Amino acid sequence: DITEVKVQAMKELAPGTGAYMNEGDRFDPDYLQDFYGQHAPRLSYIKRKYDPEDLFYCPTCIGSERWVEEETGRLCRAGGYTEK
Fold first, then answer.
1. Which of 5, 8, 61, 82 is the most buried (most CB within 10 A)?
2. CA atoms of 56 and 62, how far apart (whole Å)
3. What is the pLDDT of residue 21?
């Protein structure tokens, strides 16, 4: 239904405008719970184990709560988090 009916209707309404990859809201204050649910603590452990320097970042990824994105796009460590 989604792909063949709703998406097709959007393509007909606004041809050539591209696709929306994700419905997730990066500004959702509960994104960790909403996106990852009960798996967030385990995923956080795995993230720290394999990416201890937080080299990989995205606004809604596990570990992004340790960063603050300034208006310029610059990333800074969030208060309360220190490098290990």
1. 61
2. 10
3. 45
Q: Which helix or strand (DSSP H or E) is residue 8 part of? A: helix 7-13
Runs of H (alpha helix) within 28-81: 31, 40-50
Two tokens at 3? 């792909």
pLDDT band at 60 (very low <50, low <70, confident <90, very high): confident
The answer to whether residues 32 and 63 touch, using CB atoms and an 8 Å cutoff, is no
> φ, ψ for residue 64 (rounded to 5)?
-70, -20
Q: How far apart are CA 38 and CA 32, in angstroms?
A: 9
* pLDDT at residue 1, as a whole number: 64
Residue 62, exposed/middle/buried by CB under 10 A (0-12, 13-18, 19+)?
Answer: buried
How far is residue 5's CA from residue 74's CA, in Å, rounded to a whole number? 40
Q: E strands within the chain? A: 67-69, 75-77
